[in-house]
Amino acid sequence: MIRQFNHFFKKILLTIRTQGSFGRNLAITAFGNGFGYAIGLLLTPIIARIYEPSAYGQFALFNTMVANLSLIATLNYHSAFVLTKTRSELSHLLKLTVAIVLMVSVLTLLVFLIWGGSIMAFFKAPGLVKWALIIPIMVFFVGINRCLEYSNVHEKKFPQNAKAKMSTIISAKVFTIGAGLLTKGQPIGLIVGEMTSKPLGSILLYSKSFLASLRSPSAHSQIINAGKEYRNYPGYILPANLIQAVSKQLPIYLLSFYFGSQITGWFSLANTTLNLPILLMGTSAAYVFYQKAAETYHEKPQNLAELSNKLFSSLSFLGIIPFSVLFVFGDVLFRVILGDNWETAGKLASYLSLFGYMQFISLSIGSLFRILRKERLQFQLNLAGAIILTLGLFFGLSLNDYTALVIIFSGIGVLFELVIVSVVFFNIGFSPWYVIQRTLGYFVVVAGILYFIRWWWG
């Protein structure tokens, strides 16, 4: 296994040095994300001491609503930018997507103008009632930023995306700390930090080619035809992603409604911590791989399996250490770094860590459903997974134990992500056993070694 690690890192160094290679683009993207998230991670202990778990819980509910509504903002057409073959085709689809973002944002504003207070009261977050109208504003900026980001991916402007990501992460954390000190740890401080980073992201992601695509002439029929050409994105991929996102974020809603904001805050911080490696490497790999896989499938489809297997092996190795460390030492790390108030969050992070590891891998590999035009299959799998997960969560609620609910959520999530990766690899010629060995097998070995170290040191 040590020999495999050495061989793996030598290959990484070689590909990073190659101009324009997949590895180099990934390294640029990961560095931008990584630097931003590293600074964010260093500032997290400060933020955790400014805000109580209850404030973090209310912010988690707010942010989850933004995330769910933002999925609808583009009808997922932004993901199809990478697949467009000409600049004019990208222009037609971009115009359609921006128009959809505007319409969805206006509709969201009307909904929260009329029912915003009732929605927040239903989830037992009265402190968020007066801030509900910020949600449509954030939905708008998230939608525009996705258009800008994926337009840049189409143009292979990975350094620009990396710089924007790094700057927005750092600015969000800095504003969160400043606003928290001014408001004495009220939830609005967390909201302000998140809100200020969105317009900054739009400025930094902006490019002249984006504006040129919007300004170039397009007939209504061309815009409509572009929407029809990629109709599987709103037809299958959007529902699949929405179902997957809502089911994964369902614990936030359930914990907020049944157990209160403090426990929601513990879960949210645990989940956020596990998302750091996912956001650092998983997201970076996802859209760099998506661009490269689409290009490979169009030009040399016979090489797609090899490219996918290389990424899968890399992610399996890279994800083992951070997630297995949290699996074994989560409670200790949270208590020491964040304070005694957050030790329970560390325990929840331990329960969620294997699920995080599987998400880290499947985030990139799952994009092959779109490359292979298996959108309907992805939708069916996500729907089945969401139904099973929802049933499992409500069974957990019947036990009246939030820990049991989180363990059930994590266990079902692991199985679901394993199925997703296995099905994708089956479609490109690999057996499910290969996936299980490379994921669960290695994770168990490393976690076992770490458990022995913890037991040895007492």
Structure description:
With 458 residues, this protein is mostly helical. Helix 3 packs parallel to helix 11 and helix 5 runs parallel beside helix 7. The two termini are 27 Å apart. The mean pLDDT is 84.
Task: Sum up the structure in keywords.
globular, 17 helices, mainly alpha, 458 residues, 0% strand
Question: TL;DR?
Answer:
This protein has 458 residues and is mainly α. The chain is 85% helix and 0% strand.
* Shape by Cα distribution: globular
Our estimate of the beta-strand percent is under 5%
Number of helices, counting only DSSP H or I runs of 4 residues or more = 17
Q: Whole-number radius of gyration? A: 22 Å
Task: Please render the helix and strand layout as text.
Layout: H1 2-16, H2 22-50, H3 53-73, H4 87-122, H5 134-154, H6 158-183, H7 187-205, H8 208-215, H9 220-229, H10 232-258, H11 261-299, H12 304-338, H13 343-365, H14 368-371, H15 375-398, H16 402-427, H17 432-457
Helix pairs in contact: 2-6, 2-11, 3-5, 3-7, 3-10, 3-11, 4-5, 4-8, 4-9, 5-7, 6-7, 10-11, 10-15, 11-12, 11-13, 12-13, 12-17, 13-16, 15-16, 16-17
